[in-house]
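User: Thanks for the earlier help. One more: Glycine betaine ABC transporter substrate-binding protein. Can you show the sequence and predicted structure together?

Assistant: Of course, both are below.
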Amino acid sequence: MFKKFRFLGLAAALVLAITLVACGGGDSEDDSGESADDGSNGNGGEASGDAIELGETELTVPYVAWAGALVRTPLLQIALEEAGYNVEATQVDAGPMWTSVADGSADFMTASWLPATHQNYWDEYQEDVEVIGEFVAQAPLGLTVPSYMDVESIEDLKGNEELGEAVDWTITGIDPGAGVMASTEEAIENYGLENWELQESSEGAMLSELQSKIDDEEPILVPGWKPHWKFAELDLKMLEDPDEIYGGEGDRIEAVANPEFEENSPGAFEVVQRFTDDYNEEMENELLVAVNDGASEEEAAQQFLDDNPDLLEKWTEGIGE
């Protein structure tokens, strides 16, 4: 009988001890930091419950056929697709790019140039769009010539018969919807260049003509902007612009989105913001030079990410997991 009661007493003591340990465990966790239901996975990272949801996974991204947009768009597209999105990147003119983002038929754009180059679009659509990130902080624009030409300022073009006749009084331009074309038209009027005409073409045609003229050391005038591979590969200079028609020190190149983008696709919104936090002029120049050396824009983007896998991981971590 004694042995039986002793056994029961030991059993009761054991149960009591277990109960006390279970109840007292909370004090131990409070002393050490966070409790198990605080969202932590116990290893210093965030639990899967803290992942950012994908939301709508079909994205439309318009971009213009300018060198910078041509390289940064596929880079961002790869990052978004790695995170779980299907991205339709569509090449358009500047006007449709702004219109489609403002009316919601597109999610965001990769080539807003403000405050100067796209000022007219901003005036029209600023209530229907929002800036969500900056690709390049300072992107100067200006009338550009080979460095061997004996002109330093836009003012030097007025009444310059020798130069005017040598280039048939023509400034070789790009696509007519580009903001830099509008600025050049304004410069022609502002500086009294009545004899000069701005020729519409495309960036590719302009660059081909520029390279041809430089090969023969002949004069040519084109609208230029940085970052662009032509300034790394060719000996060029921007003409002084005393009246700052082209915006002075330069525009910001930004990602601009429809206001519903963050709510509709929160994960994509986060990827774009992370991307713009890291992206800079040096990164863009690396991509531009790779393309000029013969790679396609998609190949240049993929090679960059192969060489920098930590960036891709950083941009997509915790998205939709």
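User: Great, one quick takeaway?

Assistant: The CA atoms of residues 190 and 245 lie 8 Å apart.
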